[in-house]
Design brief:
By secondary structure, the chain is mainly alpha-helical. Among the domains are: 55 residues, no CATH class; 106 residues, Tetratricopeptide repeat domain (Serine Threonine Protein Phosphatase 5, Tetratricopeptide repeat). The protein is 73% helix and 3% strand. The chain has 16 helices and 2 strands. A two-stranded antiparallel sheet has the order 1-2. α12 packs antiparallel against α13 and α13 runs parallel beside α15. It starts with a helix and ends with a helix.
Length: 341
């Protein structure tokens, strides 16, 4: 027992000593410097600032003279040698511009992203986000990369979605954010990715309700759900969602040019939902002899689309039930025909 206690004491002492050693382990103390000294190492010295600024002017001069290759090499050297200099932000931006003129959209986007990461206080931040949006739009419109700078590569729609998502993250309060979300939805819908399209439109509607794209977002959301509907015989969850967004559209945007089209689409969805309710009512009335359940679905049919053919059929069924008419199922109808012969 005493030996066990001694062993536990020794282990406790070892663990405590190890923890103290780990807590005191700080790479910032390796060379006897303070944290302020280490932070200062990430800031370019005055000499480096001056050198970077001088090289930047040289690069700009060559760029203005049409010597893009030479200018690009200078900008790359500035980025490599003086990553933290103020002038390096402009060097990154101008290098991105050169890459865009060469159709290297993905590389240009990445250069701009590095600029945002390393110089978040860059004075032309809006221009950077705008350039990124242009890069993503080029990919959205089918721009291809080059394999070995010669062979056209594949279209990069998924890459465009990734870039638009990055733009939303970079500038969530800018005018580019709702535009980026709309483009994500358009690409996803084009590629048959309905869930991704719905997610993007949902974010646009909820986070940017005052955007000029809000009406289009509601309309596209309703249409996306409508396109998921397979027919009256299937689950009507998507139909209900489409109806909900079409109704919201009519309430929120009564002056829209889409009004007539939206009303027609809403009517189509309501007729489809009414047909599905009628089918359920028929199931209970014709095949289960459950008039109570049948009446519930027939009344739903009339409520959903009172002027539809399904509603007229539902009214006739209700009249038969109230008159005590027993339905003629397929088997009974066949027996009647055979007896008639």
């Amino acid at each position: 027992m005493q030996r066990t206690l001694q062993t536990l004491f020794a282990l406790t002492l070892f663990v405590t000593t190890s923890l103290q050693a780990q807590l005191s382990f700080n790479p910032l103390n390796w060379f006897g410097g303070s944290e302020e000294d280490i932070v200062a190492m990430n800031v370019a010295s005055p000499a480096e600032q001056a050198e970077a600024a001088s090289r930047l002017e040289e690069g700009k001069t060559r760029l203005e003279a049409g010597k893009t290759g030479s200018a690009n090499r200078i900008f790359k050297k500035i980025i490599k040698r003086y990553p933290n200099a103020t002038a390096t932000a402009e060097a990154r931006f101008l290098r991105g511009q050169i890459l865009m003129t060469r159709g290297r959209w993905t590389k240009a986007f990445d250069v701009y992203q590095e600029l945002i990461a390393t110089h978040p206080d860059y004075e032309n931040f809006d221009r950077v986000v705008g350039a990124q949006f242009e890069c993503a739009t080029a990919l959205m419109e089918g721009a291809r990369g080059r394999i070995f700078w010669i062979i056209p590569g594949f279209r990069q729609y998924s890459k465009a979605i990734t870039q638009f998502e990055q733009i939303v993250g970079n500038a969530p309060y800018s005018d580019y954010a709702p535009l980026a979300l709309m483009n994500i939805a358009l690409i996803a819908e084009q590629e048959g990715q309905s869930e991704e399209a719905i997610d993007a439109l949902d974010r646009l509607i909820n986070f940017y309700p005052q955007s000029m794209l809000a009406p289009d977002a509601y309309y596209n959301m309703a249409k996306t759900y409508a396109d998921l509907v397979k027919g009256a015989e299937y689950d009507q969850g998507s139909t209900r969602q489409a109806i909900s967004y079409y109704e919201d559209f009519l309430i929120l945007f009564p002056e829209s040019n889409y009004l007539g089209e939206v009303e027609a689409n809403l009517g189509s969805m309501e007729n489809l939902l009414a047909q599905s309710r009628l089918n359920l009512g028929d199931f209970y009335y014709l095949y289960r002899a459950n008039n109570t359940a049948a009446l519930i679905f027939y009344n739903e049919t009339i409520t959903i689309a009172p002027q539809s053919e399904s509603a007229e059929a539902a009214r006739r069924r209700i009249a038969d039930i109230e008159a005590g008419v027993r339905p003629t199922t397929g088997a009974k109808l066949l027996r009647k025909l055979l007896l008639a012969d």
